[in-house]
Amino acid sequence: MAEDRELIAKYGKPMPYDRNFRGPEWRNRSCTDVPCLLIFILFLGGWGFIAQYAVRNGDLNKLVVPTDSFNRKCGIDSSVLDKKYLFFFDLGKCIDPVVPLTGCPTQQVCVESCPTQTFIWDRMKNNLPLAELRKRLICLSDVDKDNLRTLDNMQAAIDQERCARGYMKSAPFLNRCMWELSPELCELIPSFLLPRNRREVNESQNASWVVGETGKLFDTLLGDNSNLLEMRLEALALTTIPESSDKSKQQLAEEPMIQCRRRTEQAETIKQKVRQADTRLAKLVGNMVAHFYNGTHDAQQLGEEIVEDIMNSWLIVLMALMCTLVASLILIALMRWFAAPILWLSILGVLVGLGFGIYYSVKQYRFWHETASVPNHSINLEAAVKNIFQDANTWLYLSIFLSISFVIILLMVIILRTRINIAIALTKEGSKAVSSIISTVFFPIFSWILFILAVSFAVAVGLYLGTIGNPSFRMIRQLDPNSATGVSSEICECIGAASEYKVGGHCDPKIFEQNCFTNIDQHIPCRQTSCSFAEIEHPPFVTWSICYNVFGFFWLTFFIAAFSDMVLALTFATWYWTFRKREVPFFTLGRAFRQTIFYHLGTLAFGSLILAVCRMIRLALEYIDSKLKKYDNSVTRAILCCMKCFFWLLETFLRFLNRNAYIMCAIHGKNFCTSAKDAFNLIMRNFLRVIAVDKVTDFLFFLSKVLLTAAAGVGTYFFVVRSPHLIQLHYNAVPVTIVVLAAFIMTTVFFGVYSMAVDTLFLCFLEDCERNDGSAEKPFYMSKQLRRILGKRNQLPRPMSSS
């Protein structure tokens, strides 16, 4: 036929598609890739069996067994078999976001039971007998504690942090001793520190001394983390006590402790401030700030102020995010009219910015080339940066780079200007599609829920599997920085059932405790050598189950992402291939959801399986690389590096191909392999268009996200600055920062849907161009603007116009 000859001349071969195709139609669909779906269902069944096996045989308590400062597992290792609780010398230092990575920077020791009473060395050392003091002390080792015979020895041990200076009444939580912060904190205040009435506090010259002494008491106990407790005690100390001239002196002496628990209006105001700066959250923020701020005390105060600002401004933050949500929807709707000016102004702005950068770089190069300067030899980051920017070569290379970028971008704009116009038109079409089916904007919430459930399931199964097996113990010597070898030089001899025990070899904690001594004749137990937990030895079935769980996690999460892409692709493809757009079904998203579930789950399982296999290979390469690092073989490292790079590129390409395969499957309803082949061929036949549209739309969406995020941040800042009568903050940057971060995440989600719409409409547009010729039998489904750009038109009566 003449038409086939024309197609052969244009594409090299006749179109293999059905010429009567008129877009996605659910009635003509059939199930795709059913075998892969059955494999996926069987895989999930096997995963469920492994999950029930893990829950039945695993014990999560093994994961929370604490470890002390000497790397001993409390209640498990030989020297601490009867001490299963972990005590922290200064628990306040452990409320830090980096503790899971760096560990808690305080001494930790295993104890038989958590403290049942409060102990403060500086307050009690002169009031309790020596034996009672030694009994209450908690030290790093029992031997060291038994040797403390005098008050001076105890003071020295506390100053050297071999014993805790103080502690509060605690209760075990996950085998760790945690403070019991009872609301009746008055019990911790000496009665002589409590004032008789509020007028006494106001009139007394020693009022500040009262609070100060109370603060010192807790400073001693809590170090630099006692600010908030001091505020609470201040609130209690300022409580009003009714005056009565008829009361006896004894009654007045007893009343402060009773009346301390009463709340008055003034105390309630202070307590409200304390509640806003919650203890744990304030310490968390304060310790986080301390990593970037000089002075722990100042950082803690800063943390409390930040938390208070968060508590006071949450409503403003919520309102700002709601405005950002509305603004995102409005901007998506307005893209159909303003996409072109926004994009061309952005391109012009980039070119102007590059031009200014070239001018400034050349100017700096000439200045430093003609100016003699001596490098700063200080070893710090600031000096290094100054040396870089004072080097003439730096500005020379920068000017060359900017010039090349300017020329490349300018040439690409000139060459691809027609294709850029297509990208703008498709962006407008995407805006129309999203605006017509607004429910698609909120569909990712459903995907997030599924993703969170999948991650939670996989992590839970992994944790249970990790606890199945027999614990392995090894005989080790503790580290000793005073020793020449770095480890303890203690000679630990074992007899009887433990006679074959050697340092580094396997051992049993109970047998070790009964048969290993530093002096066999006197049966003195080993102190610096122990039988310590090394790892849990998993049976082969458990090891393979862990690999199965990891692979299942990858497969399921990729499947959920593919499901979201397929539903959106079906929705937007239906919109494009509906000739009269006002006739698009109201429940298009719901119908796409049903089509995906009934027909294409096998295709999604196939595509996600390919990505999961690729990700497992990458994970295996990372594992092999970590095992081979100790051999320091440059050839092996180079090979592994090339393999990791190759599989990373392969996974990136497969992600791109899968996304387009899902779109083609949504359009034609064919299986994964056919859809992937059709998508690849279609993209290769229109390679320049694909590059232009992909990069242009990505750039436009990035600008939109930056615009909305900046507008949300600026709007929040001006509101809090100009409305001091509505809200008073310590730092205006706190709500602004929260709004900026949340707004960027929110806009990324919304424009992710928009991006999927543009990608789907683009492939539909390419299909439309190749299938149809504008005749009455095969009219174009594209908009008038796209037809005008391509110089095409439909030979249809006016009532049938697609606009």
Automatic annotation (TrEMBL):
One of its GO terms (cellular component) is membrane. Belongs to the CTL (choline transporter-like) family. Its main location: membrane. GO terms for molecular function: transmembrane transporter activity. Signal peptide: none annotated. The chain crosses the membrane at residues 36-55, 314-335, 342-362, 395-416, 437-465, 553-577, 597-620, 635-654, 699-721, 733-754. It is a multi-pass membrane protein. This is CTL-like protein 2. InterPro entries: Choline_transptr-like (IPR007603). Keywords: Glycoprotein, Membrane, Transmembrane, Transmembrane helix. It is found in: Membrane.
